[in-house]
Amino acid sequence: xxxxxxxxxxxxxxxxxxxxxxxxxxxxxxxxxxxxxxxxxxxxxxxxxxxxxxxxxxxxxxxxxxxxxxxxxxxxxxxxxxxxxxxxxxxxxxxxxxxxxxxxxxxxxxxxxxxxxxxxxxxxxxxxxxxxxxxxxxxxxxxxxxxxxxxxxxxxxxxxxxxxxxxxxxxxxxxxxxxxxxxxxxxxxxxxxxxxxxxxxxxxxxxxxxxxxxxxxxxxxxxxxxxxxxxxxxxxxxxxxxxxxxxxxxxxxxxxxxxxxxxxxxxxxxxxxxxxxxxxxxxxxxxxxxxxx
Length: 293
Hints:
The protein is of the alpha/beta class.
């Protein structure tokens, strides 16, 4: 992770950048807006911020891919999500024309009570995340999950999710939606993934077919000559950049057509993925286990 330095630098203001900060007090109002927007803007770019990696599984594992999933599972089970960013785009990559393109959900998190990795908290603090405000005004996960279930963006075949190296991101979302620990078996995890998020494009997985692209989200964006909007290492800005990267890659490397049978449902760094026909396939890649941004 990058070191937490230059904390005195002025960070961009989310609201000035078209990123709507959502706390407990405006959660229901913002979901009302989202239910309208998603009817036209059905590509949902997503990123989370979470408190790092604090545990590693012990024992015997079937494969390195199994180890990667078990590490994801034990950390997601132990930790709490801090932020979720959702950016809405249409099928040409355009964002809504109103004041906001992106919604950044800020969850309840208490540095005195909740587990975390110190380097992750330092990085997020340096990126402008206000942990005292999360403690006082943060969203309760159960309330968020209830609204998400009725929002029209999960359990829907017409919604296409865009992400970057997103095993942990979707792990936290599934934990929220099920109000439960993640399944012990990776295949069961992917069954839940397919249920809630029928179409997913992980930009880091797509990069395997783009020989010139490499690195984390910021590095890829620079290679694609994209300009970030909002503060790096906050979920709203990262979700917007993920959406922009997907559509630029789709145009430059895929002739504007992504083959769902090859790319939908694959999460970079995990060994199992679902295909559109419901069968499982096994990949060879194992990514690093950090919140790549």
